[in-house]
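#struct-queue
[09:14] JT: dropping the first one here, sequence first, then the structure tokens:
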Amino acid sequence: MKLTTGNLITGKKQMSRESGEQRLPAKSLRTGLAAVDAVVSPWNSPKDRSKEREIKREAVLKVSAQLFNEFGYHATSLAMIADRLQVTKPTLYYYIQNKEEILFECHRVGVELLREAVAGVSVGQASAAQRLRATMLAYASVVMDDFCRCLIRVGEEPLPLANRQELGQLKLALDREFRSIVQSGLDDASFEPCDPKIAAFTLAGALNWMGRWFDASGPLSKEEVALRTTDVLLNGLLRRTKQPQEIPLPRRRKVGKSKPVGG
């Protein structure tokens, strides 16, 4: 088979007068060459690279939170984080700037997880009591996560003031949600009279502390611990009766002249 200039230009099928062979059109020739010369790029697309970087950054934060919980913030070094991830220390700087940024991001993720859990509770619960119970269970189920445990165990003290203020703003939504539910229960008389602010702080504080004392190797699962803790907080410890018993107050002694002995 012979290729002529005319074939390359016109792309028409022609028969060679010399050999009688059919000649290939130029378009077919270019397609064949492209198939032979095509090289698959070893680099991922920009979209895939961005997704891969985000996955690796999340791994850096997850491992960091675990190490902060295990050894404490100050005792954990970037070298320890890199070692657990099986990468070099300079590799970490492609994903984070410094250890302070890691701690802030761990806290931010922890707060966001709690907010999402609380926001996922349906506002259409039959009563304020049911809504409060569902919210507490959702909150408790997340507070034992690595990021939330880091938020509770490490605290915000190592962070700059600007970071602490930003986290404080994120936490406001959680506080408002608990106060709103308590106020709803006061309005429909399903809750005992109380200060909504104090009640919200008490409930959130007790649930937060689970992130400090919960032991995954213990006999109870996270779900069982969350359920039992919620029951104690909602029902209390004192046995209730139909008619609350009044505790008598001690009588005050009258102040007067003392009688003489034998008088």
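[09:21] JT: and here's the second one, same format:
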Amino acid sequence: MARNPAGKPARRPARKPSSRANPTAGAATPASDRDKIIAAFLGLLGEKRFEQIGLIEIANRAGVSLVQLRGEFRAPIAILAAFVKDIDRAVLAQDFSDMAEEPPRERLFDVLMRRLEALGTQREAVRSLVRSAARNPVLALALNGLAVRSQQWMLAAAGIGASGPRGMARAQGLAVLFGSVLRTWVRDDDPGLARTMAALDRALGRGHRLAGLLDELCRVPSRICRLRSRWRRRDGGTEEEEAAA
């Protein structure tokens, strides 16, 4: 990888997703009721807080009936979950083959920058959501669940293990990390996203150090299991000796 004069790796800018891969990009009119509802909800979210958005408002903005709205989604949080899933798919649809030789941290940086670019057309909605979550613990908890699921996919896209207890812990840590970067991103007016990239780089640096601690902690249960097995064998051997006597 090329390096700049300061000796730090020169990062490739994350490639922007195509409008075909990103269902929220461009000005094309949404075709399905599902897409119209998601677009309407995001438009309303850019205008008011999450908890102020009513079902009738969403239906009216989308041009659908309440019956159609209920047929697609059970609640506003389900609409948000569908949007998050669309962003996941927009990122995962991209080609990551050129990152195969990069270190894990660089791969993750690139994946997360692509996620931010996929979110780019909905900055106002994300800004509103960040503010609502800060004052609504129930919403924050629900968003965390969505974020952890998404970050499992982002870890997989970066070629980093996301399964099992260790993978879940990584996804949870990455969800918190990405949430902190989002708070910078919603205020970053630079087209090059310099502040956001710096914040993400710092956050990944902290996360890399924590990952080392996590790996060490994850070894503890296996060590305990080995000790238990050793003591079981020892106890079993004693019982066998006593029985033989």
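[09:30] RK: nice, looked through the second one.
[09:31] RK: Residues 97-220 form one domain.
[09:31] JT: good to know. Confidence is low (pLDDT under 50) at residues 1-10, 12-27, 220-225, 238-245.
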